[in-house]
From TrEMBL:
Protein name: Zinc ABC transporter substrate-binding protein
Keywords annotated in UniProt: Metal-binding, Signal, Transport
Main location per the UniProt record: other
Location of the region described as Disordered in the Swiss-Prot/TrEMBL record: 132-155
Taxonomic path: Bacteria, Bacillati, Actinomycetota, Actinomycetes, Pseudonocardiales
A Pfam family hit: ZnuA
Domain of life: Bacteria
Amino acid sequence: MRHRSTGPLVAATAAVLTAALAACGTDAPAGTTATGPAQAELLDVVSSTNVYGAVAQAVGGDLVEVTSLIDDPSADPHSYETTPADAAAVAGADVVVFNGGGYDDFMTRLVESAGGEPKVIDVVALSGLAPAEDAEEHAGEEHAGEEHAGEEEGHAHGSFNEHVWYSLPTVQALAGRLATDMGAADPANAATFTANAERFSTQVGELITEAGAVATAKPGARVAVTEPVPGYLLQAAGLTDVTPEAFTEAVEEDTDPPAAALAETLTLFGPPEPVAALIVNAQTTTPSTDQVRAAAQTGGVPVVEFTETLPEGTTDYPTWMGAQIDALSAALNGN
């Protein structure tokens, strides 16, 4: 992901936790309200994006304060510029979670330079999806003997797809790891974190079932993509990505695709056998992706929008991902 259609990058600022005391009298003791003792101190969790922030919130509930450094669809994790407030948030965190795999390298630099001793979760390393050499490079903060989260392959064309939040088994594994790390930081509430993680994992399991239903209804259906962002979910849905690798790699690397790759991609939307759908990254537009989208619309091929971060107004991972699966299913079924 590189070009953004929504404007310049916006540096996210760290959230500031404030406490408000009830003003029923002027002689209330410090640390209390009119209704009882002050709320217990919350665990501080810092995530690179609001996708991982949403998972952390689901596991931590009202026992955690979550700060997502990227909480704006116009901010690009590949080139995000950190602020002193970001460094302070990471330094004071109990738990830090980020994607890894080169997607949000700014978090690695923050963890290394900010100080503090948070529990650090690199989701690519946790997933077990990266090739062995990459997994070793990004596994510095993982527990020894960590189980692989799933058995999916990488991007259909063979190169590693770092967008692991679209791997539903990986998200389930992340919830379990968050519960473990939160419980270690706050043992008194460990059982609550575990119960929340299990509830969340059940919801994600329902999404796996929904993706499987797409695979059953449209086994092996051919689709095109502008970027490999939702690749793991497309595999779970039993779909076949037939986009030329040279095209998607160029879009992801912010370069113009070779003319031959663009021409080949454009043929996917016409006779004799157009693809069943075009999946676009709604947060990335280039002249090439605009051209491909126009070709799909001209050819009557449905276009399905996916995103890299939670859209404005959405804070719940299962709701967000479920809506995308529903949109994909509707497109494939001609609805």
